[in-house]
Structures are given as structure tokens and as C-alpha cells.
Amino acid sequence: MDFLKEAQDITNWTVNIRRDLHMHPEHGNKEFFTSEYICNVLRSLGLEPVRYLETAVIADLHGALPGPMVAFRADMDALPIQEETGLPYASKIPGMMHACGHDMHVASALAAAKILVSHKDELPGTVRFLFQPDEEMDGGAKRMVEAGCLDGVNQVFGAHVRSDIPAGYAGVRYGVSYAASNPFKITIHGKSAHGAEPQDGADAIMAGAQIVTALQTIVSRRMTPIDPAVITVGSFHAGSQCNIIADKAVLEGTMRTFGEENRHKLVSLMENMVQNIAAAMGVAAETDITWGYPGVVNDHSSTELVQRSAEELLGADHVKVYAEPLVTTEDFGYFLQNAPGSFYHIGVGKSAPMHSGGFMPDEAALTFASALHAKVLWSALGLK
Ligand code: NI
Asked: Could you tell me the distance, in angstroms and rounded to a whole number, from the CA of residue 330 to the centre of ligand 1?
């Protein structure tokens, strides 16, 4: 099966879809144009898309033969960024842009669907295409999973464009691949007093300062140096005037960990440290932890399948096996908590960074991505 040739044959079709989407970027959970557009394309392929939640779309491609169900996810949302590329197909929506390449994800997933539809009679099982809202902010993946989109799915795959590798390259990573994130807010309640009479108050600023410093010792002294972790306090607000002991301090920050065990360990060490320092300093403290995106943990055999598929398609020297995980986050982790699978990277070459107004992925990547997604799903159904 020459998926690369099949993807090349429909390159114009795929590029046009990508450009249409690029001109109409939409905020997370507001992907109304995008989801309608996707439904129309899927219907033109003979599939029966189902609207899911508000803007998600699911379409099942039933092969002619019995077999497993494998899924592929493409995220659809854009970012509130002003496009600065000057391209003829630049965003038509002021202040919104597909600056994370999700337009590339949708177009290549639709192209993979088109390729696999043409092989429907040979497919043993079902391929489910998942078009997901709101990756950037609140985890559309979580809501899709909770609504049952993975029921009956045996393996799930997804991909993201990356500018660290050129078009024609793919990247895979075994095991822990993206960090988990836990934003936090610590509120310290002290007692105000005259700045000259500290013994009558409980200084929230002093307690907060001790907490900021001590939190950094968790990573350096309590966690193993083998497994990286990050605690950052990004804001510290307290006090009203130079001669008043502050009665309140609010610290906000974020944590990054790799793997669920370390995530729970870091959170518990932090809560413990905050409570104990607060007690020692004579103040009260509340720690409010947000359970942000879980890490992405790729299944070993699913990742082997992706690597093998990519090597056969692109050549072994065009497949990067990442030695380290990424510190960024990605809500595909919610899918992987519910079904084995793998999340891989599609090279789009260097341009301005992702999440910037100049981001300009190499469209040549669309052909490679479409072919690779089709081949991964084909192989996941057990076909050679
Ligand atoms: Ni993204």
C-alpha cells in the first residue's frame, strides 16, 4: 500500500481544506464554523458525522470486515493571537489565529479519512475520527472522554505539528512524553498590626516569603534528581502600606511533573510544607490546587507501531525518537488514560515559534501527515 502516493494524489484537496480552516480560526468551544465544515467534508466522503457536545465531531468509518476499533484525534481550536504572516490565506478574524497548527491537524485527519474510505472494503474493523474542541484552555479531551467517545475503542492515536523537525520527518517518544500541570493558589491569612509593633500581628508577607523559598527545596531536596519537576511561583500579592503588617498574601504558580506518581507526590509535599510553615509562622494558609492536564504517557506497543509505520513511510533517518519528554502540556493525555495509544509529532520545519503571530508551518507536511495517519490506523487494524 503506497499511502504516500495516495496522499500526494490528494494534496491540493488537503491544502485547500487547511487554508479554509486557517482563514477561519475559532476560540476553544466556539468552533462552530470549523465543526460544520468538518461535517460537510466527512459527508462528502460518505461518512455520517455526529455532533458531540457542542462543537466536537465524531465519525466512524466501518470497514467491510469485522475487527477492532481504532481512533484518531485531531484538535480544532485556535488562539487569540493576531496573525502577522502576511500570507494570502491569513486569518480573516482579527485577533484570532491558528498559531498552534490545529488547522494542519484537522486537514491531515480528513485526508487520512479520505484515503481510508477508498480502502473501506479491505478494512477489518472501524476507524473512529475524533475532532476535538478546546485543547488550548480547558481540556475538550476530558469532556469527550467523559461523554463516552472512547467506548469500544481499542487504541487511540493523535499527532501534533512540531517545528523542531522538518517536513517529511516524524517524531515518536516512548512512555512519559508531556508534563502534567498543576496550577496552584496559596492564600495566607495573617493579622494586621502597626508596622512598628509586629508582635501584635501575624505577618502574611513574611510567611509568604518563607513559603516561596521553601517550595524550591521540594524539587531540590525531596524529589529524586532522576525525575525532573518544576515549581514556579509566578505572582505574589500582599500588603497595602509601608507601616502596616500585611494580613493577607496570595501566591499563584504552577507545577510540572512527569508521571502520575511524581505528580501526586509533589502536590502532597507542597501542601504539607505550606501548612507547616504557616503554623510555624503563626498564620493560616489555604492551598488550592488545580488538577490541570495529566501528562501524556504513550503505550509502548502503540508507539512501536507508529515508529515502524513512520520508518517504512519516511525512512528510518526521518524518524526522531525523542530522548526526553516535553515540559509543555497536551490534553491528549485524557484519551491515553482511557485507552492505550500513542501521540506523535509531525515535522513542519522552522518558522516563528508556535503560539506566535508569525507561525508558518510548511504545508508540505500535510501530505506526509495524511499518509502517516492513514498508515498508523491501517496497521492498528492489523493490516500490513
Ligand atoms: Ni496545539
From this structure: 7
As a whole number of Å, the end-to-end CA separation of the chain is 8
Compute the distance between CA of residue 316 and CA of residue 308 in angstroms, rounded to an integer: 9
345 Cα–ligand 1 center, Å: 11
What domains can you pick out in the chain, each with its CATH number?
Answer: 3-178+295-380 (3.40.630.10), 180-289 (3.30.70.360)
pLDDT tens for 289-303 read: 999 999 999 999 999
Give the pLDDT confidence of 167-221 residue by residue, as tens digits: 999 999 999 999 999 999 999 999 999 999 999 999 999 999 999 999 999 999 9
Please tell me the distance between residue 136's alpha carbon and the centre of ligand 1 in angstroms. Answer: 7
**Residue 207, C-alpha cell as written in the block:** 510567611
268: buried, middle or exposed (CB in 10 Å: 19+, 13-18, 0-12)?
exposed
Task: Give ion ligand 1 contacts, CB < 5 A.
Answer: 100
Q: Which residue has the cell 507601616?
A: 243
Single out the residue of 272, 276, 292 nearest to residue 284, CA to CA. Answer: 276
Q: Per-residue pLDDT tens for 260-294?
A: 899 999 999 999 999 999 999 999 999 999 999 99
Across the strands, what pairs with 58?
50, 130
